[in-house]
Amino acid sequence: MKHRMKLCRLPIIIIVASLIISACRPSQSASENISFMVFGDPAELDAYQKLVESFKRAKPEIQVELIQIPGQSDYRKRLAADIAAGNPADVVLINYRRFATFAMAGALEPLGGFVFGDSSLIKEADFYPQALQAFKWRGEQMCIPQNISSLVVYYNKNLFDQAGVAYPSNGWTWDDFTTAAQALTKDTNRDGAIDQFGAGIAPDLIRLAPFVWQAGGEVVDNQSMPHSLMLASAAALHAADFFFSLQTKYHVVPNLEQETSQDSESRFINGQLAMFFNSRRGVPTYRESAAFDWDVAALPQDKQQATILHSDGFCLTSASKNKNAARAFLHFAISPAGQTIVAGSGRTVPSLISVANSAAFLDPQAKPANSQVFLDVIPYIRMLPIHPNWAEVEEIANNEIWLGFYGQVPHTDAMSRVVNMTKESLIGE
Which pLDDT tens digit goes with each residue over 24-42? Predict the structure, then answer.
């Protein structure tokens, strides 16, 4: 009987031991959990939700938590805080003008060797080089670009038709733009107040920069190692005069009080503003909310054609606790399959040349009808410097540009102040 009792106890001992061992061993599900943090409004978020869902179908063993922070400023603060605390998301979306701060701090994992290794089906030559170059730090490919957008003019075709104004054409000039904007600025109900504006543009450095380049000027003294902004040059002042005069002289954009009561993008969506300057990121929202016919055009130009790069990249954080799973998701996100999904939402101009030239992006059934313009201007795209303090530089510059744009200081004073006030931020790294 005792012998039988010992035999009966043995399976119980084995089971208990197995449970103890299992409890000590990392669970399979925990090791395959990763997080992906993005910024953007609800219409943009939908694109990333579809990306995550598609990846889960391809790799069901990896669970992806999607974290969305709507505003880019709040997003950068959250990312910086998470990195400082040692618990950032595994994969993060960062604009090329912002990643250097994190790269210098060692918070990002270089991706070039992983993405473009000998066994990879994706090659560097598959991407637009302007987009890849924007995410290089000290010779290493730190992030992989998801898009290669640029600044364009969105325009309300209905308002153009009602005013009898011709749609923007290739090669149109600053004068052409100003003339059209004046014709499209109206007091429609004749109460003495303008209720339809010809144009809307944010008074920021990233909006002013392409016009400086078009006028033959430069934004910085040295693109690779900038020590000073060049916004007080004759060419830059010429561009600033055009830019600020849209509000201070021609009054074709809302003044400060009007912009505060309703921002220009909302006016455009509501059909009360004829032309709005934005990158590709506005497309999902306009498709969903604009109840009128609209399209896009290249920027009006001065001496030469130029536009500015808008690009976000997928980055892998150094603190990621599951880098293999994170790399698998990142590789899917930048692949033709992943880029096709996000492109279908309208959110991006794909950084992969093949996807950008496919129906996923150039969909004739989806607005804007002239998506080709985003590809046509790629040879004229220029980028702002990659500098760890560039966010600080832009913040200072934007404050002064804002003052000049709303007529609180002359444009010459605003530009001189920008140059003087940003020098300290550009000294060293």
Answer: 333 434 458 999 999 988 8
